[in-house]
Amino acid sequence: MCWLHAVSLISVIFFTCGSVAAVGGNNYWYTEEQPVATTKPSFHVNGYNIYGSQPANGGLPANGGPTYRSETNFGGQPANGGLPANGGLPANGGLPANGGLLANGGLPANGGLPAKRGQLPYGTPTHIGQTIYRSQPNYGGQQRYNARPRQLEYKCIEGNLQYDCVFYDVHIDMQTQDVYFGFEDITLNNQKIVTFKNSTMRKLPAALLASFRQVEVLNLNGLQIEQIDTNAFAYAHTIQKLYMGFNAIRYLPPYVFQNVPLLTVLVLERNDLTSLPRGIFHNTPKLSMLSMSNNNLERIEDDTFQATTALQNLQLSSNRLTHVDLSLIPSLFHVNVSYNLLSTLAIPIAVEELDASHNSINAVRGPVNVELTILKLQHNNLTDTAWLLNYPGLVDVDLSYNQLEKITYQHFVKMQRLERLYVSNNHLVALNLYSQPIPTLKVLDLSHNHLLHVERNQPQFDRVEYLYLDHNSIVTLKLSTSHTLKNLTLSHNDWDCNSLRALFRNVAHPAVHDADQHCKIDYQLEQGLCCKESDKPYLDRLLQYIALTSVVEKLQRAQGRCSATDTINSVQSLSHYITQQGDVPLQGNEQLEAEVNELRAEVQQLTNEQIQQEQLLQGLHAEIDTNLRRYRLPKDGLARSSDNLNKVFTHLKERHAFKLRETQARRTEANAKQKETEDLEQENIALEKQLDNKKAKQAELRQETSQKRQKVKQLEAKKNRNPDTRRVTK
Ligand SMILES: *[C@@H]1O[C@H](CO)[C@@H](O)[C@H](O)[C@H]1NC(C)=O
Ligand SMILES: *[C@@H]1O[C@H](CO)[C@@H](O)[C@H](O)[C@H]1NC(C)=O
Ligand SMILES: *[C@@H]1O[C@H](CO)[C@@H](O)[C@H](O)[C@H]1NC(C)=O
Ligand SMILES: *[C@@H]1O[C@H](CO)[C@@H](O)[C@H](O)[C@H]1NC(C)=O
User: Fold this and answer.
1) Would you say the C-alpha torsion 535, 541, 542, 546 has a positive or negative sign?
2) CB-ligand 3 contact for 322 (6 Å cutoff)
3) Domain boundaries, the chain
4) How far apart are the C-alpha atoms of 682 and 517, rounded to whole Å?
5) 356 with 399: CB under 8 angstroms?
6) What are the CA-CA distances from residue 79 to residues 88, 143, 557 (Å)?
7) How much of the chain exceeds pLDDT 70, in percent?
8) 627 lines ligand 4 (CB under 6 A)
9) Whose CA is nearest to atom 12 of ligand 3?
10) CATH number 3.40.190.150 given to 384-534
11) Taking the complete model, does pTM exceed 0.70, yes or no?
């Protein structure tokens, strides 16, 4: 609400400006891309150019050409001795530019032109036949004496009641340099509410706010800004509201908001921010409204808002946030963190409206907050509602599209003003609001759940105005004649016809806002709703349910898909159903009892089997651990056993491969040795053979020798027997 106050305050300001502008006539500022040649020499008097000031009343001839006076004046004296509130019109004031609008008259809404300097600007576009007289360049507050033409220069016109300065057709890209805004004497650029139309500005230059140093509201939405000059806001000491949405800003320079102590509203929605520089908001203590929705932010670090103690309104929807601890920003009042990736929601102490829908939230924490009025948590992963006890002031709670299984009065006992509770599209099987109905509740949406028996909640149903029960499995419903229902939905349930007939005796049909069309077999349309005739409706549904379950189970068992867990779950929901129903005469039906017993036995058997399997599994896990220890593998505590087992397998495989390689090397070595041995043996044999040959030859030679000796002996003997020979030889 504080935020709304600020807005209405601003519209008051706008209105004031509007009236001032009206006093000066429909005054406009001109945009001017190229400066036009100066046709009149400048006079330098104490560093100021003084071109004859115009009559303050702006009552210049409506179409009278250049009407400046050529007299110069004088030593920094007020040109016109203190200009009147409408700012003293410039040279060409009163010209029928754009249909009788003054070219740049009515200057400052604050009326207080720089009277103490006595200086007036001359900036007149030639295309309407005006000449331009430049004042001394006074850019950045420095006096410069050598006027040089400014490359690219934009001037603004007063646009409408909302803005006292609108720039048209400004086009700046990444390469643009030396761009100038407004008058060279920056004291003349005293507009406070500035915007751009039909413009693009790829890079936000420092020049804009260096020239316009009194801006309080700056609207830079939709200018295709990609980059912000580090010094873009270095002179923006007065800025309070800064709109930079619908651009393409990828990052913020770390110190860009260092000198904006009065910044109250900052809008950066629909940009390409992925993160925020550390400490980016540490010097913006007055920041009360910040929007950064539709960016790509991933985290909001815990110290981001430690200095923004006035931050009330925070818009962060449609980012990729996995972390933001809102409870660290106790000043928050309105928050939107919808469409992110949060799994925990930390609710701050005084937030009044909080939209955290479309996340993956499964835990809600934070201090007690009695202010919280509207809480949107649809499309999350909640399984529990006990945390609601911390928010007794809730009026409006949306918990639809979660994983809730029951709604119980215990979590709502502290609610003092709860009017609307939305729990559609959950997994509700149990509803207990009968023990202690919520007295203030007006809207209760329970549609699209698995509710079956809700009749007991009549005390609650009777006192609400809107009750949505469609798309459940409800069989019977009772309402008293004094119910306050205005709208009731009942279609897509499992109605008992007798119950419907009784119900419609107490409920005027127009209150029922939906209907069934086609009924399944055994069902008929009655009062626009499908229902079934039976004497004992719950028993009938129970039998039907059991039959269905058995059929499904038999089928699954036949296909080997029947798991013990499934069976246990279905029997549990069955027994829940029975407990809820309480007085179903189960005993009467022997066939039913037999079947239930049979099922129980089967469940028991399956449970035993499951226990055995689990034991086996545990044994296997232990064995895996033993192996891990044995092979000195580190155990990853968080990993599943199968992963650890894989680790053992990988290790063993590697070990095996290593051993195999080693064995092969040994074998090759052995083979080589064996070959060597064989070669040696072969050589041995050859040598032996050679030896044998030698021996044989030796024997042969010996024999030959002895034969020869024999022969010699014989010959000697012959010789002795012959005397002639003896003689001869003597
Ligand atoms: C917008 O700017 C473009 C390009 O500068 C120009 O051609 C066009 O006339 C402008 N449109 C309006 C409505 O001023
Ligand atoms: C939060 O933001 C989403 C997305 O922009 C929007 O649809 C929703 O209406 C906002 N919630 C509130 C409470 O304004
Ligand atoms: C949240 O719930 C959805 C839908 O039931 C499910 O697909 C998703 O895995 C859940 N996410 C978490 C983080 O639990
Ligand atoms: C009643 O509820 C239905 C279903 O939500 C809706 O279409 C209809 O407009 C509601 N009627 C009134 C009077 O609120």
Assistant:
1) positive
2) no
3) 384-534, 642-714
4) 103
5) no
6) 10, 19, 102
7) 72
8) no
9) 360
10) no
11) no
